[in-house]
Amino acid sequence: MSNYDWKLLEELCSIHAVSGREDRAVRFIKESVEPLADSVTVDRLGNVVARLEGSENPDHQIMLQAHMDELGLIVRGITPEGFLLIERIGGVPEKSLLGQRLDILTDQDQLVPAYVGPKSHHITSKEEKFTVPAVHDMFLDAGFSSREEVEKAGIQVGDPATYHPNFHRIGNGLIISKALDNRVGIFVLLELLKRFHKDRPGSSLAFSFTVLEEFSIRGSLPTVNLVQPDVILSIDITIAPDTPIDKPIDPVKMGGGPAIKMMDFHGRGTLGGMFSSPKLRRFIEAKAQENNIPLQREVIVGVITDPAFQLYLGDQGQTIAGISIPQRYSHASISACHESDISRTIELLDSTTRGLNPELDLTRG
C-alpha cells in the first residue's frame, strides 16, 4: 500500500466539482493525463477521455471509467437578511447537513465559506429534537447581513456548494473524506494510467472520467458513443453496511477487497440498474482467484451508477462489468474507504485489463 500516491487521492477529494460545475476537476484531470496518454479529449459536457493505443491489438477497445462529479447543494434564493436558501444536487442526506461547513463556488471561481445553520439548542422544542428538517427548511450562513453584501461577495442564485475538504488517514488504513464517491475511482484510473503508460497492454485503452453521475446517471453516455468500446470496466463505490447499526443479510465488508457487481437496481421509479455481463464477470473472478485478490459479490437495491443506461447504447448494446470499492457513510461529509480495498482494486483491474483480448469469448447464450 505504501507504493500508492495517497497525497494524490487527498488532492482529488479536495477539488470542488459538484454535478454541472465539474470544471475544476476537468482541468485537474486533463492536466494530469496529458503527459501520459496518446490523446486527450474533453467533450461539451466535460467528460475527459484519455487514450492509449494497444501494443498488439490496437482496434480492440477497452474503456475504464469513473465519475468525477460529487453531490452538493445549489443556492436557490437569498434572503434580505443575507441568508442563503438551498436545494440539493444529488442525494445529499439532510441528516448529514446541519452544522456542516461548506464552500460556495462563485462564477469568478472563488470559494466562499458558509455553514448550515442548526436551530439553537436552547430554543428547540421537544418535538423538534428528534426530527431532521427538510432541505427547504435549512439555510447557509456565509456571515453576511444583507442581500447586497452577499452579492458583493460574488454569490448568486445558482452557485453550487459542497462539503469543505476534510481528508484524513486514520487507524489502520482507513481513509475519511468528502467526495470519496467517486474520487477514489478517479484515483484508481490515474494510478492505472501511470502503469500502462510505462508498460501498455495489448488492447487499446480509453480512460473515461465522467460527469453528472450524481445528477442524472447519464453524463457518461457521449463517451461510449465516442470510444465505441468492446468492453467497459466501470469503477465506483458500493455501500459497506458493516457497522453496529446496520443489519444486512450479506454485507460487503470494509477491508474485504473490491466487489464484483452482480446486480444493482434503483427501484421501480426509474427501472434503472445493471447486471455485469456474465462471461466478463466470471473472467474477472478468475483473475482475482489467480492473483489471490479477495473479491466480494455485490447485490444492492437503491443504487445505480454509470452503466445503468450505457448498457443499451449502440447497435448491439454494451459488455460491461462493475467493480466496486466498499465505502461506509455514503453521501455524508465523512465517507470512508480502506487503503487495502483501493490497492486490491488497482491490482485486480491491472490483471483484468492485461488479460482482455479479441480472442476472449464474451458472447451471450
Rounded mean pLDDT is: 96
Largest sheet: 9 strands, mixed
**Which residues form runs of ≥5 with pLDDT under 50?**
none
Number of strands: 18
How much strand?
25-35%
Classification by helices and strands: alpha+beta
| Count of separate DSSP helical elements | 8
The helix/strand order is HHEEEEEEEEHEEEHEHEEEHEHEEH
Rg result: 21 Å
Give the overall shape.
Answer: globular
Oligomer: single chain
N- and C-termini, Cα separation? 40 Å
Helical residues, percent: 10-25%
Map the helices and strands.
Layout: H1 6-14, H2 23-33, E1 39-42, E2 48-52, E3 57-67, E4 72-78, E5 84-89, E6 101-105, E7 111-116, E8 139-141, H3 147-152, E9 160-163, E10 168-170, E11 174-177, H4 180-198, E12 203-210, H5 221-227, E13 231-239, E14 259-265, E15 273-274, H6 278-290, E16 296-301, H7 307-310, E17 320-327, E18 335-338, H8 339-355
Parallel strand pairs: 3-12, 3-13, 13-17, 14-16
Antiparallel strand pairs: 1-2, 2-12, 4-5, 4-9, 5-8, 6-7, 6-9, 7-8, 10-11, 11-18, 14-15, 14-17
Helix pairs in contact: 1-4, 4-8, 6-8
